[in-house]
Amino acid sequence: MADLSDSVTLLTGVGPKRIQALKELGIATIHDLLYHFPFRYEDLKVKDLNEISDQEKVTLKGIVVATPILTRFGPNRNRLVVRLLVQQQVVIVTFFNQPWLKDRFVPDQEIAIFGKWDQRRQSMTGMKIFTAQGDDHGMDAIYSVNKGIHQGVLIKLIKEAFDKYKTLIPESVPASIRAHYRLLNEQQIVGQMHFPKDNAEAKAARRSAIFREFFLFECKIQRLRGIERSVGNGVALHYQLPAVQEFISKLPFELTHGQKQAVNEIAKDMKSPHQMNRLLQGDVGSGKTVVAAIAMFSAITAGYQTALMVPTEILATQHFEKLSALFATMDVKTALLTGSTPTKARTQILEALRTGKINVLIGTHALIQDTVNFKNLGFVVIDEQHRFGVDQRKKLREKGIAPDVLMMTATPIPRTLAITTYGEMDVSSIREMPQGRLPVKTSWVKNKQSEQVQTFLAGQLAHKNQAFVISPLIEESETMDLKNAQALYETYVTAFEPKYKVALLHGQMNNADKNAIMTAFSQDEIQILVSTTVVEVGVDVPNATVMIIYDADRFGLSQLHQLRGRVGRGVKQAYCILIADPKNDIAVQRMTAMVATNDGFELSEKDLELRGPGDVFGAKQSGLPDFKVGDPVADFNVLQAAQIEAQQIFSTDPDLDLPDHQGLKTYLRHFGAIEQLD
């Protein structure tokens, strides 16, 4: 029995070569072909000459006034010139390398031609011809194609498939939802996406197709979450509440509302028999580490070991010092394991870990080596999680038996990414900063004002403050990054030494040298640290009050905000100075946004809007699904509505047993995999 899973080889003219060409477009079945939607349309409605703009693609209708002239000027190169009388004006229409069209033009016959209009010459480059019946020739769909499949061939195949299979196109969006949002049914979506009569039909079809795509994706995520929860694949951590409350009471500060809420959400997950998979996001300095410490201590009171993995040794050392101080009043044994840990100390740590004498292990990728074995790992924290690959995160989880996992990021996730990329995770957000923290004052200056910046810096140094100076970023070139940093370092040495100590930090240094410089900087033995973006993550120097970023327009908003977060971590007023001469409007908007707000969540939304999803964490890191019709940024309201509807369905009918959900159930059975998700 025929259905949409039939192979495209059943269509006319699909042989081995064409099969391969279609496969390269992601088309193997009739379903693939019917849902290979056009990415734009050309309106073929006939227009008057006085309505047309220069270089506009348009359809003109007129009378052929003479026999067309064909001129050849080289092998396979020719030009066909047609004179067309349009509204009492003779328009020259030229077709290139289509000599076979000559016989289509008969003097005194009315004909319609689609092409590109040249306002200055009052002429047209022809692309397509029609019979002249009526003024409305519909919409011409434009598809993604390749060398093996041209537009005309693809359209013929789609038309044949639609004619043969349209009655077999199943409904996947429940009728109640279609009625609520006034959406087309599935057959109408497919028909009008490919063959719209006019712009209104094309818009209606695209609107329904966008909702359908987002809704089905969100249903896949809800199904995935349901499967994970139904398996009961975790361990309930029965922590000792009085001990946890005592630990919180001994903290030298009051938790913010956001921190308290995050702690409660994590604690609820820990009590559940399902494996926790939660993302804790908060701006730089919002207090995520304290929340993680409370959760780790809770796991320890339940009899389990905990681990914290971070991307750099500098950050690992800093976390170790911070957590050791927080746990100092409790009976908790912490250890630090990195690539630089001496062999003897490493052997002792591994033995103490295996026997359960270590409660908290903090480290870098060293944590996931085969020789690292825990006695009873129950809680895992991964900081700056987007800097680790899927396999690395998985390896750490596998060190325990389904431990609860808390991922942390200081790059606030835009709502779009939270709904798509992180849809299978629970998300906790800390939006406010700790009391008494002064917002960093940000200013944007041009390169010609560099001397004034150095004068301002001298004033800050005179008040015993310290500064970061970030060298220009050259994409894909560590060598150029280093040259820039070296040149900038020499400039600052000339300007400020010997009165103030200047040091250089870059990615090509070995870890021991990097750590030595950062230690000296944190102890105020170095006053100005010239660096590449290696300082972006996690470095905590409360006495640093100035961040100067050269050629700031080369950076994305999220990266600029991360760099700005390196200062303002103490009680003094801090400053971020962006030095940039932007070359385009988007770069200007980035500088303006940085000056306007310190809110990382707001900036993450703006960054996504300006740069596109692939660049927020880097193309490979974003993980944003490859939607075919919808744009999760531009169509965010539709995405949000689709998520709400999917959540509602799976909260009330998780097994999709209701009659209205049978089409959705069938769809998920056939197309339920989400390859993009971890």
TrEMBL record:
UniProt record, GO biological process: DNA recombination; DNA repair
Superkingdom in the source lineage: Bacteria
InterPro entries, A to Z: ATP-dep_DNA_helicase_RecG (IPR004609), DEAD/DEAH_box_helicase_dom (IPR011545), Helicase_ATP-bd (IPR014001), Helicase_C-like (IPR001650), NA-bd_OB-fold (IPR012340), P-loop_NTPase (IPR027417), RecG/Mfd (IPR047112), RecG_dom3_C (IPR045562)
GO molecular function, a single term: ATP binding
Residue ranges of domain Helicase C-terminal in the record: 449-609
Domain Helicase ATP-binding intervals: 269-430
Protein known as: ATP-dependent DNA helicase RecG
SMART domains in the record: DEXDc (SM00487), HELICc (SM00490)
Protein species of origin: Agrilactobacillus composti DSM 18527 = JCM 14202
Record-linked PANTHER family: ATP-DEPENDENT DNA HELICASE HOMOLOG RECG, CHLOROPLASTIC (PTHR47964)
PROSITE patterns: HELICASE_ATP_BIND_1, HELICASE_CTER
The family this protein is said to belong to: Belongs to the helicase family. RecG subfamily.
Catalytic activity entry: ATP + H2O = ADP + phosphate + H(+); Couples ATP hydrolysis with the unwinding of duplex DNA by translocating in the 3'-5' direction
UniProt EC number: 5.6.2.4
Keywords: ATP-binding, DNA damage, DNA recombination, DNA repair, DNA-binding, Helicase, Hydrolase, Isomerase, Nucleotide-binding
Protein role: Plays a critical role in recombination and DNA repair. Helps process Holliday junction intermediates to mature products by catalyzing branch migration. Has replication fork regression activity, unwinds stalled or blocked replication forks to make a HJ that can be resolved. Has a DNA unwinding activity characteristic of a DNA helicase with 3'-5' polarity.
NCBIfam families: PRK10917.1-3, PRK10917.2-2, recG
DNA repair is among the record's keywords: yes
KW Magnesium (keyword) present: no
